[in-house]
Amino acid sequence: MKKAGCSRRKRPPPPKSGRGHQTLAVEFPNGGISAKAYFFPGMKSLATGMPPGKLILDSIKRLALSGWKEPMHHLCNSLGLQDDGHPTDTAIPPFLLSADLCTPDHCCLKIYVTDQVVSWNRVADT
């Protein structure tokens, strides 16, 4: 057995997770209390191979909210999200889904996108 000359291919380590995959925020408006949940699909995307946009859209579809189809269709068109969840413009991918934790009739879902093309010239111009 020759150990010294043996080279084994090692798998690269998985990327560090960075921030959490879920976050809970608590607000204290007007002496009351409310909570919001934030879901970052990046880690699940790495684990499943599904794009973050698809994970977000599928999560909203599973809720089966009444009246969601037309606004979601408009949002997908505005963001250039294809049916597979990939944005046509990779500079503005969806990266965060949030929800108010309250009764469904007062709940608000939010999808966050971010501009991935950052340069000092663009920062100065905006």
Overview of this protein structure:
With 126 residues, this protein is an alpha+beta fold. The chain has one domain. The chain contains four helices and four strands, in the order E-E-H-H-H-E-E-H. The chain has a four-stranded antiparallel β-sheet with strand order 1-2-3-4, with helices on one face. A hairpin with an 8-residue loop joins strand 3 (94-100) and strand 4. The model has no long low-confidence stretch (mean pLDDT 79).
List keywords for this structure.
126 residues, alpha+beta, 4-stranded antiparallel β-sheet, globular, ABBA_NscD-like, transferase, transferase activity, transferring alkyl or aryl (other than methyl) groups
Quick synopsis:
The chain is of the alpha+beta class and 126 residues long.
Provide the domain count: 1
Q: What letter string, H or E per element, gives the SSE order?
A: EEHHHEEH
The residue ranges in which pLDDT falls below 50 over 5 or more consecutive positions are none
Kindly state the percentage of residues in helix: 25-40%
Mean pLDDT: 79
Largest sheet: 4 strands, antiparallel
Could you outline the blueprint of secondary structure elements for this entry?
Blueprint: E1 22-27, E2 34-39, H1 42-48, H2 52-63, H3 69-79, E3 94-100, E4 109-113, H4 120-125
